Amino acid sequence: MIKEKAELQADECPFQAAMDLLSGKWTMSIINNLMAGTLRFKQLERAVTGINTRMLVKELKLLESKGLVHRQAYATVPPTVEYSLTERGRLLQPVIVAVQEWSVREM
Amino acid sequence: MIKEKAELQADECPFQAAMDLLSGKWTMSIINNLMAGTLRFKQLERAVTGINTRMLVKELKLLESKGLVHRQAYATVPPTVEYSLTERGRLLQPVIVAVQEWSVREM
DNA sequence: CAGGATCCCCCATGATACTG
DNA sequence: CAGTATCATGGGGGATCCTG
Fold first, then answer.
1. What is the pLDDT of residues B37-91, one digit of tens each?
2. Of A102, A6, A56, whose CA–CA distance to B93 is shortest?
3. Min CA distance, A74 vs chain B (Å)?
4. Over 60: is that where the pLDDT of A4 sits?
5. Can you list the domains of chain B with their CATH numbers?
6. Given B29, B32, B106, which is nearest A88 (Cβ)?
7. B92 at interface of A, judged by CB pairs closer than 8 A
8. Is some CB atom of chain A closer than 8 A to the CB atom of B73?
9. Chain A residues lying within 8 Å of B87, measured CB to CB
10. Which of A26, A67, B49, B103 has a CA between 20 and 30 Å from the CA of residue B73?
11. Looking at per-residue confidence, does B11 or B107 come out higher?
12. Nearest CA in chain B to A29
């Protein structure tokens, strides 16, 4: 079985694989906000400046499927859903902090 | 004058502004490779697994315009062009290192 | 409140061929 | 070698309305 080009990249280079996952327009901002702790959907939507509902839903599903974000739903009325980082997600803290510091200084 | 939404984001939030700049599919990988030192165009093209000429040219121009990469051309035959990080670009090292470490562990 | 469902569009990304 | 020029495309991203 011959591999696709994109597959090859990700396979052979963990760095590129990581960036394939993290380089979404909103990905890092979402993770950044969740670093502070658990947030509800609406809180996240307000925290991530400029994002819209559809993209937030989409990104959260992706991050959940990749095991970076944990989703906790409560059967209340109205619904309550809380998002938090998994251990794997929390391990990104050094990355977030580094970007944070660079951005404050250079942007 | 009322500002566009995208403009507001970048203005108000340095983190988001930084990610707007860095979240390209190839951006971090290019910077990562340049961390090691100066590289010629062809060397970069080989180093950044999977990229094609057009994208590399485009990214390099962007990074140059943002003051992260320095371009040095020599009037030789055939042409020689060397790319290196500026001081501002080198300040991204903590970010690169953090991604690197996470990727090796988690990807 | 937390999403689903749609419609839409532009641009990032890609492949290929060509040149000083 | 270091690009430029073209053409093509898909999906990332957005806006809006709807619902359990």
1. 999 999 999 999 999 999 999 999 999 999 999 999 999 999 999 999 999 999 9
2. A102
3. 30
4. no
5. 12-106 (1.10.10.10)
6. B106
7. yes
8. no
9. none
10. B49
11. B107
12. B16
